[in-house]
Write a structure and sequence with these properties.
CATH superfamily: Divalent-metal-dependent TIM barrel enzymes
Strand content: 15-25%
Shape: globular
Structural class: alpha/beta
Number of helices: 11
Number of strands: 11
Number of domains: 1
Order of helices and strands: HEHEHEHEHHEHEHEEEHEEHH
Largest sheet: 8 strands, parallel
Strand order of the largest sheet: 1-10-7-6-5-4-3-2
CATH class: Alpha Beta
Distance between the termini: 21 Å
Length: 327
């Protein structure tokens, strides 16, 4: 692995890659704005997606000053509003005061195929999500502050595109996660190109796959070490929004099991057919990892921390040197 210093000599530019809240889940650093900006800067990153620790005016001034002094960016991760919208609106106001560029949120915190046991449960979630988004749109439009909704292993391509179109708001778009929809049998490149017209922010990641008895295993890997066509994806997003931020979403963990050959997996996918399954499994077999996917369970903590830091460091350098993501 090239050192950061060697890479800087090669390019003369600082990496423009930022970090999502999940890049250091093993190290468990504070993931609120000020603390996480410091951690990201030490890793050579250009910004973060994070939460705010307070709505206090002095705290927000400190966050803004840190951004300006370090030349970094900030995107605020927050929850969609329930019936009481006061906290969400407070976050929007504070995010603007702190110098953040936009928000990032999700409808589902878990995974669709694990969370819901019936189609009726899924439909109830859809109705609730639409209501939350409608409330959020009114607020972000009033404050003229963009919100990126992440495809968080919940919406398929065919569902998320009309979902976003339905609100017709310039302040509601997508936080495009490059790899998540592989768990829903969507192609990474296809997903990115479909959501690119709606992009607000991103979770850039690379993925590796391995077949298993009830489907396949899916793992985040350092950028450039997986099967996602990252250059194609980055170009697709930049064609629409040349100055978009790319935030690394690199979770160093055991591979996720995608049980797409089980009956339970398909409970909520009433509009999908065997074409998606056949295509996904064909890709897994064609592009399976040359070696078994890395598991962190069983490694001692020192080795886990080393693996996590390497994944982030390699990705930051790859983004700069191979994808042209500069600060």
């Amino acid at each position: 692995m090239a050192t950061a210093g060697a890479a800087m000599v090669q390019t003369g530019r600082r990496s423009g890659l930022g970090l999502s809240p999940d890049c250091f889940v093993i190290a468990r650093p504070p993931r609120t704005a000020l603390e996480y900006l410091e951690k990201a800067a030490s890793a050579g990153a250009a910004g973060v997606q994070s939460a705010l620790a307070s709505h206090d005016a002095e705290y927000l001034k400190k966050v803004r000053a840190t951004l300006e002094q370090r030349g970094m960016y900030l995107e605020i991760a927050t929850r969609l509003p329930g019936e009481d919208t006061a906290e969400f609106e407070a976050v929007v106001k504070s995010a603007k005061e702190a110098g953040a560029e936009c928000l990032r949120s999700v409808c589902l915190s878990g995974r669709r195929y694990e969370t819901f046991n019936t189609l009726e449960e899924w439909k109830a979630f859809v109705a609730d999500s639409r209501a939350k988004l409608a409330r959020a749109v009114k607020i972000v439009e009033r404050h003229r502050f963009p919100l990126g909704l992440e495809n968080h292993k919940d919406w398929t391509i065919e569902e998320m595109v009309p979902l976003l179109k339905g609100y017709s708001s310039e302040y509601l778009g997508a936080c495009i996660d490059f790899g998540n929809n592989m768990a829903l049998l969507d192609g990474a490149e296809e997903l990115v190109e479909a959501l690119a017209p709606f992009v607000v922010n991103t979770h850039i990641k690379d993925m590796a796959v391995e077949e298993c008895e009830d489907g396949f295993l899916l793992a985040e890997v350092a950028l450039g070490r997986g099967i996602v066509d990252l250059k194609r994806c980055v170009e697709a997003v930049r064609r629409v929004k040349p100055k978009v931020r790319f935030s690394l979403d690199m979770l160093t963990r055991d591979p996720l099991r995608i049980p797409c050959l089980t009956e339970k997996y398909w409970v909520t996918f009433n509009e999908r057919n065997g074409r998606h399954l056949a295509r996904a499994l064909a890709e897994v077999r064609k592009k399976k990892a040359p070696a078994p996917l890395v598991r962190v369970t069983g490694l001692d903590r020192e080795m886990q921390l080393k693996a996590e830091l390497e994944n982030v460091t390699v990705s930051v350098e790859y983004a700069r040197d191979q994808l042209g993501i500069f600060a």
